[in-house]
Specification:
17 helices, 2 strands, mainly alpha, two-stranded antiparallel ribbon
Amino acid sequence: MVTTSSVAAHVQDQVVKDHAKVGQEAHDDDQQKQFNAGALFVLKSKGSWVHCAYHLTTSIVGPDLLSLPYAFAFLGWTAGIFCLVIGASVTFYSYNLISLVLEHYAQLGHRHFRFRDLAHDILGPKWCRYFVGPIQFLVCYGAVVASILLGGQCMKSIYLLSSPNGSMKLYEFVIIFGCLMLVLAQIPSFHSLRHINLVSMLLGLAYSVCATAACIYIGNSSKGSQKDYSLKGSPASRLFGIFNANAIIATIYGNGIIPEIQATLAAPVKGKMFKGLSVCYAVVTTTFFSVAISGYWAFGNKAEGLIFSNFLDDGKPLIPKWLIFMTNVFTMFQLSAVGVVYLQPTNEVLETTFADPTRNELSARNVIPRLISRSLSVMLATAVAAMLPFFGDINSVIGAFGFIPLDFVLPAVLFNLTFKPSKRSPIYWLNITIAVVFSVLGIIGAVAAIRQISLDAKTYKLFANV
């Protein structure tokens, strides 16, 4: 059986072998960032493990967790809970693996600040340029577009509570929410988001509590539909539903920016990420399991893609209006934090391209290009969200192709290539098993997501008011 202590022991042995190469981490950080404006200005290494916990929680605990009851509708009770537990276990393990790899290189005096840098040094420049870099960009920018779209939908829900016959369209609310994102995008560094991400963590807990309470209220009342936990559809539909549900769960647990988050930690980094992940996963298990179990218990196989939709029956609320209002407000504001967190890799690339690392961060030479480039980035994301309100279907494909490789497969591969555990050791074979199994699941999940797009394509319409 593989234990945390056995992994740590193996890592410690490797570190001892390379002890002669270990340098002063803080000095090395400054040296490495000296000629890279993106790392110097966006990925400032000033944070504590507590700040790291805030960033991790915001990047994982987002409103997409409200889709978990929908995933359960394809899986049923046993398989649903099993997949949820496996997702939590494997991602916690994988995130710790990649953290140990990053710590190892930091102790050798070569700290990596970006996922693509780590891939470049371990896998080679082609893997970095043609695989890791592009899929990380798609995942992160896709998350920004999805956040803006969901934020607009929350604003529209709040509007319809007060004006049921209102004439404003979804794309108008998406544009309004995009304006909020436009302001937040100008926050200069990832570390500067620490207080926003603390509030975000509290908001995530708040709307999860509200959603759970609403599900229990409806489930115990006569207002809800009759509970049916059977799996619907033909055998083929059920099979693709299982694959799609697994892709949804993998995407919900996805992060994709572990190296960038670890880059915000002040040196020395050893042990800090584990503490941050422990706090993060305390919140993850609390929110994910409570919403998934209560939502599926209340609505069974009638659970909608977003559990909020089940709180209305033909437009009539099944719970008090103030609870719907409060839940949507909490969700809307947390989405703004999620969106700006996933903007950071894009901001880092823009800063590297347009900023001058030899000039002050707040000099006109750097502020003007930053303002223009970040504004254009958010405006493009807002335009896509307003134009493609069915982006959620597209995002599930991005999740299958992106989150599964970045968060389930690559950490195991990078660990084995870095520490070279014995082929007789359980760590080696556990990592190989995770990499192979989730590579297959990623491909199948992508096929299932593409199939769902083809089925839903007839309902797609640009700037649709959904």
